[in-house]
Amino acid sequence: MGKRRHHRGNVISCVTNGGKTTLAKNLQKHLPNCSVISQDDFFKPESEIETDKNGFLQYDVLEALNMEKMMSAISCWMESARRSVVSTDRESAEEIPILIIEGFLLFNYKPLDTIWNRSYFLTIPYEECKRRRSTRVYEPPDSPGYFDGHVWPMYLKHRQEMQDITWEVVYLDGTKSEEDLFLQVYEDLIQELAKQKLTWQSHAEGLQVTA
Predict the structure, then answer these.
(1) Element (H, E) at 102
(2) The predicted structure's pLDDT at residue 85
(3) 74: how many CB neighbours lie within 10 A of its CB?
(4) 11 phi, psi to nearest 5 deg
(5) How far apart are CA 35 and CA 102, in angstroms?
(6) From 40, 41, 52, 180, active-site residue
(7) What's the pTM value of the predicted model, to 2 decimals?
(8) Cα separation, 157 vs 163, whole angstroms
């Protein structure tokens, strides 16, 4: 067996209500041997969330998330994937494990930087984002002015931080239909799987994706 390369992955991220979770679920339905880890599952309890001077709960920051727990979940998946590919027929690209990681602050957490194969970011304009946010029910619910006073400013801040990213990010138009977005990313990932198959003879590795 050849030397095992590090497991790498693909990331899909976006502003709140940008469509990342829907896209990730659609990909999981159609990609073989595919798992999803959602960043939203790692929010700390409300009692641990700080508030700013305006009384807004600071949910749209890394400090609101238990990122160490999320990294542990990713590491567990990667180890399981490593064991599975060692015992799999290496001629079959369909058996390559795929992990989709979806979240709104994935590009802003440095420990994740080294694991991506492909990176995607869904964008939607301010008015559409605000409209979608108004149709969602959150617990705790958004307080008056929360979107303009916290959610959107934090998104702009995080987008600015992304200017320092040194790898390729594929920007997706989040106003497109679910089907169009799915097909664009699905076809790209199929090409990535084909590349994995070319190295399948000499490497045992999984493919991870984030959204």
Answers:
(1) strand 98-103
(2) 63
(3) 20
(4) -120, 140
(5) 11
(6) 40
(7) 0.84
(8) 11
